[in-house]
Amino acid sequence: MHQQAFESQCTAEEKRHESATSPIRNPRLALFALALGTFAIGTGEFGSNGILQLFSADLGVSIPVATYAITAYAFGVMIGSPAITLLAARMNRRTLLLGLIVLFLVGNALSAWAPNIGLLVVARFVTGSVQGAFFGAGAVVAAYVYGPGKGGKAFATVMAGLTVATIFGSPLGTLIGQNAGWRAMYWAVVVLGLLAGAALVSWLPRTRDLHGGSVRNELGALRRLNVWLMVAVASLGISSIFAVYTFIGPFITDAAGQDASLIPVALAVFGVGMAVGNSWGGRIADRYESRGLLYGYGGVLVFLVLIGVAGSNLTVLLFCFFGTGATMMFAIPTIQVRLTGFAPDAPTLMGALNLAALNLANSLGAIGGAITLDAGWGTLSTVWAGVVLTTAGLLLYVLTVGRQRAVLPAGA
Description:
This protein has 16 helices and no strands. The protein has helices at about 5-15, 25-50, 50-60, 65-85, 95-115, 115-145, 150-180, 180-205, 215-220, 225-245, 250-255, 265-285, 290-310, 315-340, 345-375, 380-400. Helix 1 packs across helix 7 (about 150-180), helix 1 runs antiparallel to helix 15 and helix 10 crosses helix 15 (about 345-375). The two termini are about 30 Å apart.
């Protein structure tokens, strides 16, 4: 999902270590360890959507109230990603990744134990604070492992873990939750986190080359209006994917009248669409400045309307799950390339802001959907909140930064 967001960060890391040699005996194992970490993070993030109805019923709260746990995770990423990135700027990336895995384990263990919705919300916030910083530090380590000229390829390998999580991890987590209880899903994620932690300890390189650096240039990027406009475009536009994904369970059981056993299948269909869209969207983003975003946002609006009108039909619903995931992911690489293009001298912070924008979108989509449900407009009404938000993001882009050029890096 986030590969393009960090390619400039990988490139910057290559330049910082272009004269260094990477003393790693098994680079593939180091990359696998990073991918396993992103797989665990993605499984916990997306798996929470699949067990929404389960912890809602068990904790005695309505589905709109239960979505606060989903929203809390998103706010954890929004606040934690930039904050940890800046506070740990000078920390060795290996040390940072290990510390983040420990925090990830604590957050998911608290999630599994939480006796009420309040503590679950706190636990999901703690867990979310790990995500952006882990992806950013992982980009740095991946670029170092592969060496000069292969930064994009390196991080593409790492981010494969997140793609696999949307296709397999999330549906499997949902299946575990349905058969063993929603708490079991979070304990399963803890096990994945322990495996990832062991892999990171064993296979990540110990080297001074992975020490951090100054954040002065990155902080300077926060003064650029185009950066904040792109963050707003991403947050508003991408929110519609979460106005659907967050409520996949109710869509299947309530709107389409199907058994809950189909929820993991629906999650997998959505994940396959995301993987396909991301693959094609990355290619378009490298060739055209705006087409990926314009076509992606426009396409997702069509699928949202189809769900709103005919989503009670299972065939239509599954088709639209695939289409919504594909068209939105088609847009995301363009959004991320444009954002990093507006601040090429601040790749690490831009990576964190990318994750923050995506998770603000998660929060907006969940909140918008909860509002329509609270209003009594029906299960499928959440997609209309998505239509409003994505349309706003599309208009903002066209009217502001759509024709703006990227900033040239210093010395280019």
